[in-house]
Amino acid sequence: MMKRLLIIALAFCTACAQKGTTGDADIVAMGDPFVLLAQDGHYYMYGTQNDAEGFQAYRSDDLKHWEELGYVYRGHAEGSWTKDCFWAPEVYERNGRYYMFFSSNMKDNPQNDLEVFRIGVAVSERPEGPFVDMYDRPVFDPGYPIIDANVFWDEDGRCYLYYSRCCYKHAVESEVAQWARAKGLYDEIEESWVYGVEMKPDFSGVIGEPQLLLCPPATMDDAQSEWESRSVTCGEANRRWTEGSHLIKRDGIYYMMYSANFFGGENYAIGYATSDSPLGPYVKSADNPIFEKTVCAVQNDSGKGPAAESGSGNDSPASGARMDVTGVGHNSVTYSRDGNTTYCVYHGRTAATGDARIVFVSEIDFRDGHIIVTRR
Asked: Domain limits at 207?
């Protein structure tokens, strides 16, 4: 049965070219959102804007009203390894400096491949930039295209880099691939997989070999196979994505949130897996997916708070407008200033916004090894 979620009053969206409002919240368009609560007390939001120049950012005091800051990082400069397709930036504060990890195509492309993504790191003295490349090369080169960097510092001080191997030129045999061929849908199915690896403290490289942590199910009777294979079984694409990982540790448990299915389709969705070690093994949750395409309630016309959730027994027009939300995925996590509330930040699409990705915020909690989606 389709899970449902409530867009809380904090729900917002972000766009690089325009900004509007809905209810009492700004609307801006952005994909792969990452929100940092910085030491200066402000929230800073970074994300993918299909920008050939680099990344812009936004600042907020309340997660509702956003000030556009303009470019905080510009790529493909002289001496830079980056070329185009600047995706999925994440910014971390360490010892008073700010480090941006991001994906970009490399200038160096001797095989003339369509995708030569690698992960880089840039540094700034301020969360609003400007960020400057730390090195004239990516953090490391695994020999295949990679995106969606996520960085985690464990309590022992060790630092880990998580990323997704791109689907490009990565055809994988599985029962789903066999099924697609038999149905005449696709000759092969390419997959993206999530890896983790320890990173050097100065981000100049990695320690040891990357470990495969998450990938799509190989068999169709796997409990996760139905939701993680929808892009193939619905005929959206000949690919199965496992990407957009985000690691959180609570009470000794490592929770790896991730997204599956075609990022440009309606079946993009969010699940999670758990482990007792930062490099796994990870076990996918029976709760998956925790966010997927759904019908959501939005702020009611009276301005007295969120409307009743669709399906809650109050479906009259007075309970507020409703909208279909699809393509839900690539999340990050941020926190209230007092640390008592955890927010899941993710993008989705609506009929009104079309292909534009808009950003939503929902409250979540961690209980007994489970991620619980809560609401006000």
From this structure: 32-291
